[in-house]
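User: Predict the complex.
Assistant: Input components as received:
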Amino acid sequence: MSRAPVSTASASTASTSTARAARVASASAALAALLALTVTACGSKAAPPAGATAGAGITSPALATALAAPGGEGWAVVEMGGSAAQDDNFWELFSRAAGGSWKLATPPGVASNGGLIAAVTGPGSLLTAFRPSQDLTFSPLALTPDGGTHWSEGNPVPAGLADVPGALAEAHGRLLALTEAGAVNTSANQGAAWTRLTTLRALSRTAAARACGLTSLTAAAWTPAGQPLVAGDCSRAGRTGILTLSGGTWRSAAPALPAALRGDRVSVIGLSTGGQRTTAVLAAGSGASTVVIAAWSADGGTSWTQSPLLAAGLRTGRAIAGSDSAITSAPSVSFGTDGSVSIVLPGSNASAATSTAASTTGSSSAGRASGAVIGWQGTSWQRLPALPAGTATLATTPAGQPEALAVHRGTLTVWTLSAAGAQSWIVAQAIGVQIPYGSSG
Amino acid sequence: MPGMHTGLSNTNPTLVAAFKTALVHQGLLIAVLLAILALAWVGMREWMPSVSGASAPAGGPGRAAWQQEAIARRTLRIGFGIIWLFDGILQAQPAMPAGLPGTVIEPSAASSPSWVQHVVNWAGTSWSYHPVQAGAAAVWIQLGIGAWLIAAPRGWSSRLAGLASAGWGLVVWVFGEAFGGIFASGLTFLFGAPGAALFYCAAGALLALPEARWHSARLGRQILAGLGLFLVGMAVLQAWPGRGFWQGRLNGQPGSLAAMASSMAGTPQPHPLSALVSGFASVDEAHGFLINLIAVIVLAGTGAAFLTGRRLLVRPALLVLVVFCLADWVLIEDFGFFGGLGTDPNSMIPVALLAVGGYLALVRVPEPATAAEPVPAGPVAAGEPAAVRRLPRLAQVFASASLRAVVALWAVAMVIVGAAPMAAAQASPNANLIIAQAIDGSAAPLDFKAPAFALTDQHGSHVSLASLHGKVVLLTFLDPVCTSDCPLIAQEFREADQVLGSQARKVDLVAIVANPVYYSVAYTRAFDQQEGMAGLKNWLFLTGSLPQLQQAWRQYSVAAQVLSAGGMIAHSDVAYVIDGTGHTRTELNFDPGPGTASSKSSFASELATQAESLLRRG
């Protein structure tokens, strides 16, 4: 096709058009710059500060724990399997008869991906709650009278239990439960009916809670006298959040902290009552300067004895559940029936991917979890040798010796010290568990 | 984004087969329409030679000039017509119905603000509710628009085609391209910003302009000025520091451009192409600063040249821009449609076309119309039969229309045939049954007396199957402490109740506990509270003693197996439809699948449809 001729009428205005075009070009360039700036601003998103979490500096306890029963039995709750993101993590319960060996005792009938919370109810008997996972939003309960051989369904907790090992407490058939939503529920008849005792919100308006600046609830227990005892984190430095309900009023039942901790924020990472003894474990400070202190009361929280400070050097945040390398960033606290405390302090267990039957190690490895134990009203912490890779929690034998329970995917390895006071661990038992991978999908 | 997916595999055979069937059926209908139009047109022209003769233009050069379409307009019209045809063919990929929301729409909105995701989610959800109709609609609408643009060179039909192109382009830009990603970070012309469909809109809008506008160089200058402004803006963005384009490598990782090219090279495509793109990525990693400098200079330079409107500058700038666009199209955009689920050749071709169109509009302006108006279709000659003279005006116009006009009409019909099923489907708030069938297959018709049961409902009342006679029963088996399937199935039952509407009072929704450990009324009640079933009047969650439950499981062929080590109870997912006389009429495999909004709605529709079918039988 030939080119169509351009109209000659436009030639005389060419120079005017060019000048105007140049002006337009300049203005347009400026406008384009402004537009680009605006679009860039719209499109860019401020990156969230790395590691920002609510309550940074407050430590939450790991769900893994060990419990001791009056008859000398032991129980342990650990996470096994694969990734929690794929619902391939399964919380397992192990039991050990007095003088016996550990065995798998996970209650059947419910997926355990969300966690297990246990409360000793007597010799050989245990009450276990399943934490919610996926579309399950309440917590089924299970009861065993015989060390986990037989289980029966208990009445459900109508809401999901909180993600702390101390979310369930039992005394003489009465239950106390902390829920995910921050409520404290109680039942007088083994869960047949539940009533709401209080909520975090209501508690925080009480004088006792305001004095500490209560921000969350981390544990529940019954006092020896049968009164509810709840504990949590305080936002005000130098205060401990332990409260009890007495005469219809919530009052502080917390220990006074040593002077060294007056400037630190305090978390209650463990609370337990056995017989007439109440034991609390507190974490004060944050990051590398975190210290742990145990406190004991024989009168339901009116007066306390405290342990020396234990340097913990914790990272903030929760345990990364289901991680194959069992990297823990939260401490695991276990209690003995006599008020003794065992604690696993987090570290990176980078070599957990290797065989757990590896050589015993007496030397401390950089990044390994460490452990410590202290007896009832003890005057010093006993530091344990560097814990075996993958140690999830510490239990105590009937003879009072520590046992490190380590996990690698479907294997639980029980380590004991080669001798009392020894500096090396030996494998006492290894249990392979048939993890039902993919069953929760 | 919630609700976006069907949750099905992109290549789900049921969905693919249904999609192909829909395309074939609609294609046949479109072919039949073409045949009818062609036969009618030819026949009427044979019957009315005097009317048909009016469509031929009179001779003379002046008349030819009047009828001559501006070459710029023709370039845009045919160019974008071909692109729409190509896009329509791409939409016919078998994986499109299930794959578009998750593979195309969601990623495009992933890094956009939540309000954009909300807008996009609506469209993605609509698509996933009716994936077959939506997929077929996209094919025929785009093919129809493409054919319409090519077939209609001028007049109101051509302008309407431009409007249709602009309109559909806008739909694609908003819902398919998440506003072209302009609200997301990392915006760059090199990756396709501000969205290819926006250029389709621009071209469509230009084609919708009155033809007289094309008979002046002013339009060309305006087009080029607009493009120039855009290119300068993109140059500024490209030059902006801190966005990773100036560095080939940044903190040990490839820079933004190299990373994008590398990811494109990794998509499934012929190896030579992959090697080419991968090679470019390597070059950019080594010389990122230079590459970006070239890009900035090209964009700014061509943009500034276009803004001047001077031919001496515009022509070389156009050449440079076209080469740049082609290079970007091959080396960075990787032709736009390779790998994954490509829907179009991305933005470089449309940009180049618009630039060429603008240039042609500037330099190749047809002479103003001087010839006489074309001879309209005159009245029927006096010598024609009376029957012909009584024909409606429309028929006469049709007979006098050109072949192109008939093809354009057929193209419009193609768009309507494509869009109509989707429009009809949208009238229903429920997802299509095809999704449920794609997950679990079709229902199995049965006819036997349903096994009796006598159990306890969540209120503690005794309920037997006999007590439910007179109503249709939708029966399933649920584990009250299940973490995945059973809550979904309960939701599907609840949604089925809503779908049934007033008919729901004639239907009972019944579940029997399928857990040999947790089966007390406390747990059925806890489950009801959790799933919001407590308020449903016709919902019964039945339990009993373990022997009673085990008997029901046996009679209804339901397995309920206890797994160790923290596993959920493994049980069958099945549903039965029982009529008012107590006969089982249908068995449904009721694995709820992915539990997406569309799959839940589809299962609910399936249940409701089965119940309604029995209610109609009476």
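The two ends of chain B are 43 Å apart (CA to CA).
Let me know if you want any component modeled separately.
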